[in-house]
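Can you make up a polypeptide sequence alongside its tokenized fold?
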Amino acid sequence: MVRITVDLIRKRSEHNEGEISTLEEIALHQENIEKIELVDKLSRSLKILLMQNNIISKIENLNMLKKLECNEHLKELFLTGNPCTEYLGYRDYVIATLPQLKELDMTEITRSDRIKALQKYAEIEGDVIRGYWNYCKIRKKQIDSFNQREKLVITEVPSNLQDANEEYQDQDQDENSKFWNSKSYHTPEDRVAIANKTIETAEKKNKKKDNKLDKNKYIPKLFNSEGHAYNINQAKIAIYRDWLHLDTSYVDIDVQPNYVRATIKGKILQLSLPCEVSTDSSVAKRNVATGNLVVTMPRLAPLPSLVKPLSYATKSCNKPRSRKIVRSAPVVSRREFLEIGPRNEEMDFSKIYKENNFNDKDRSNFIDDPDVPPLE
């Protein structure tokens, strides 16, 4: 059976940010709880306590909840299904005892109902007390009858283990069918027995499912017979990309000299490496903005350099270099335009432009006359 623990109370107090001491409302229904405990010590400020569909046989350990016990503002009360509803004068007794009630068992309490209940209160109180003692006698008979039905039946155990398992399964099925087809009574013992049988059946089903999953679970083969690692991508993850919403705690990177393995939520992504890498110098980093996971694995043996050494380059730079201009011979093409015959010499582009000496004159016989005024 489920017991009330600190973890259960904290789990059901998420609306209060997990704080137990200041908790005012908690719902513990449908948990198969058998006994009320710890609630009065951990959450003394409780005002609302919901515990439907449990198998609690006795209301206890609530004396420390003053705000719940002294609930002066109680306006609605539901007692449907409780044995006290069968007492003679039950409704009038509750109305007269709790004057602040506005509704009882989803039925509105009118002013005339309250007046009649107060007028008959002295008579009703005795009827309720007598109904309680009559119910106690009925409960004693119900308990004795239940104990007689629950007596153990001793059977012979077969010697063969396989026969024992088969017989146990058949016997278990017969007991289940007999239990569910038998007549039950509206008593706490029968309700507890039904709850226990339901829990037992659910546990057996879950156990069978787990056993099937364990048997049929595929175990991937990570290495071949020669010890080389396979390329495995169970999660079907794109190698060049990782999701931003995938938390880093779900990713485990294992870098080995000949392969790298990434375990993502239990799924394996394994890549075989073409050369041996240095595991000590390998680094795995994740980009905060994009979520990309980058694994840097330097080679153990670096690649040979294809660049000339620096010493050779400096020596060659210091040496004087003689430049030679080699001109190729003119090549005669098959089709020539605007030319007749082959060229005798190569075209010199430096002689395209010539200085214009057209206005230059011979000034060897020039005589300067001082009487002539200068040009303005």
